[in-house]
Amino acid sequence: MRDSKIKIRLLFDYEKEETWVNFMSKKGWTLTYFGLVYYSFERGEPGNMFIVMK
Fold it and tell me: Is residue 1 helix, strand or coil?
């Protein structure tokens, strides 16, 4: 199983982005970097990390 994951998504709705990133966290993927359309995750422990994007 891979220990890192890169996703490219084009979202302009911050609430949808927050929901998706927090969903990834619950699955055990920790957000390590994000840009306009680029998200990088590393495998970690599943949890309830709450991300707020402004």
Answer: coil
Could you tell me if 31 and 25 are in contact, meaning their C-beta atoms sit under 8 angstroms apart? Answer: yes
pTM tops 0.85: no
CA separation for the pair 50, 2 (Å, rounded): 23
Specify the DSSP class assigned to residue 27.
T
pLDDT tens digits, one per residue of 21-42: 889 999 999 889 888 788 899 9
First to last CA, the chain: 33
pLDDT of residue 52: 66
Q: Extract the tokens encoding 4.
A: 């890192």
